């Protein structure tokens, strides 16, 4: 009869062992669930923070009105734009080159100005050659006119002398 008692006590011992073994499992499951819930909340918080940061930087509107500080930008010179170094709504520092203008038109204008200067210098030199000739011609014309005046005066004097006689 001891066997049935032994089996009953063995059963009770086995059941108590099973209880000891089974009791930590719900704690592990509970810890796992809590850990999973905390990780889920952390993930939702991080995603929410990223979305909040993204949507706080970009404005959207249906009526296209913006309440902001606008600064007009204009170029000092005219020309065709070859490159834009800043994007829309991008923050830039003072002195940053925003746009590059095609310099070919200005190179052509500089070359044209050099050609005009060379032409003007050549014209000025050619006019200096005529100055001595003109001065000599004018001087000889003055002398010729003076001689004509003397001749005319002599003719008038000669007539007066012949009239008096």
Overall residue-averaged pLDDT value: 76
Number of helices: 3
Counted up, domains total: 2
Total number of β-strand segments? 2
- End-to-end separation: 205 Å
Structural class: mainly alpha
Helix % is over 70%
| Strand line-up of the largest beta sheet | 1-2
- Poorly predicted runs of 5 or more residues: none
**Major sheet details:** 2 strands, antiparallel
Description:
It is a single chain. With 165 residues, the chain is mainly alpha-helical. The chain has two domains: 2-57; 103-164. Helix content is 70%, strand content 4%. It contains three helices and two strands, in the order H-H-E-E-H. It has helices spanning 2-22, 24-57, 104-164; strands at residues 81-84, 99-101. The model has no long low-confidence stretch (mean pLDDT 76).
List the main descriptive attributes of the protein structure presented here:
165 residues; mainly alpha; 3 helices; rod-shaped
Please summarize what this structure is.
With 165 residues, the protein is mainly alpha-helical. The protein has helices at 2-22, 24-57, 104-164; strands spanning 81-84, 99-101.
Describe how the helices and strands are arranged.
Layout: H1 2-22, H2 24-57, E1 81-84, E2 99-101, H3 104-164
Antiparallel strand pairs: 1-2
């Amino acid at each position: 009869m001891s066997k049935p008692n032994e089996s009953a006590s063995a059963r009770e011992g086995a059941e108590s062992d099973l209880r000891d073994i089974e009791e930590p499992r719900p704690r592990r499951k509970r810890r796992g669930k809590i850990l999973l819930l905390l990780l889920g909340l952390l993930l939702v918080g991080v995603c929410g923070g990223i979305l909040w940061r993204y949507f706080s930087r970009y404005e959207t509107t249906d009526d296209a009105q913006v309440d902001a500080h606008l600064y007009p930008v204009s170029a000092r010179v005219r020309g065709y734009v070859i490159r834009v170094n800043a994007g829309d709504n991008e923050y830039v520092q003072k002195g940053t080159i925003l746009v590059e203008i095609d310099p070919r038109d200005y190179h052509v204008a500089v070359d044209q100005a050099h050609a005009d200067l060379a032409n003007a210098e050549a014209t000025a030199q050619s006019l200096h050659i005529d100055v001595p000739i003109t001065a000599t011609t004018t001087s000889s014309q003055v002398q010729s006119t003076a001689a004509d005046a003397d001749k005319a005066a002599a003719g008038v004097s000669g007539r007066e002398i012949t009239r008096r006689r």
